[in-house]
Amino acid sequence: MSGIDILPPLREVIAAHGLSARKSLGQNFLLDLNLTAKIARSAGDLTGCDVLEIGPGPGGLTRGLLAEGARRVVAVEKDARCLPALAEIAAAYPGRLEVLNADALDLDWAAHLQPPVKIVANLPYNVGTELLVRWLTPPVWPPLWDSLTLMFQREVADRIVARPGGKAYGRLAVLAQWRCDARVVMGLPPEAFTPPPKVSSAVVHLTALPQPRYPADPDVLQRVVAKAFNQRRKMLRAALKGLVPDIEARIVAAGLTPTDRAEQVPIEGFCALARQIAAG
What we know:
By secondary structure, the chain is an alpha/beta fold. The protein has two domains: 2-208, Rossmann fold (3-Layer(aba) Sandwich), CATH 3.40.50.150; 218-278, rRNA adenine dimethylase, C-terminal domain (Helicase, Ruva Protein, domain 3, Orthogonal Bundle). Helix content is 36%, strand content 18%. It contains twelve helices and nine strands. The protein has helices at residues 2-5, 10-17, 33-42, 60-67, 83-92, 128-136, 154-161, 171-179, 218-230, 236-239, 247-253, 267-278, and strands at residues 29-30, 50-54, 72-76, 97-100, 117-122, 145-153, 180-188, 193-194, 201-208. The strands form two sheets. The protein has a seven-stranded mixed beta sheet.
């Protein structure tokens, strides 16, 4: 990890470049290089991999990813103030860091990466969930990426790994666990960040499965799950009313109970219902 050692501490980098975190960009900087290195290691063996990082800020995690052996890191940073700090890291790791000054929501990131690909990021809070859903719902599966190692608010992390029967179980859990193995690998308190957010954070590691756990048309499954959890307090027959004319019969044919609520339905059940609906 000598590459990190030759670069200044992050607090000095932030001071030198005037990088106060901006709430409008969802920024909370993680300054402890031991923690950023731990997050990089939780992504697994990075040797020979291209890594996509969203929102590197002053580059703490970027430095960890490079020091842990990533072949290349493509860092997407919307805040142009961070570019000089990231350029210093690029100079310390010649040819291994590409910085794109862009909005991750508008970028064709795949054009900049070669497999195998891992995505590792301390995601800005204001776009984290949307990016996750996009990565989980590509046009074809398996996706370009092998794994996602992402930091979220703890509440969002709990929703990703939730099991049926609890309040945290919902659309994110179904989308994530249908196609991935998902687990929380570490938690971080607010005081680990500058400025400290009002909530705790957690890192979730998702490994793409070669095939989804159960057969289902992705678009139909997404519609069913979104509608079911949009009115999660209602019974399935009421929450899904209007999806197809004979929804109650489809629910029964899928082996589900029309009076159940969405949070009681396992992923396999949602997939069975999606197949019934897709069958016409």
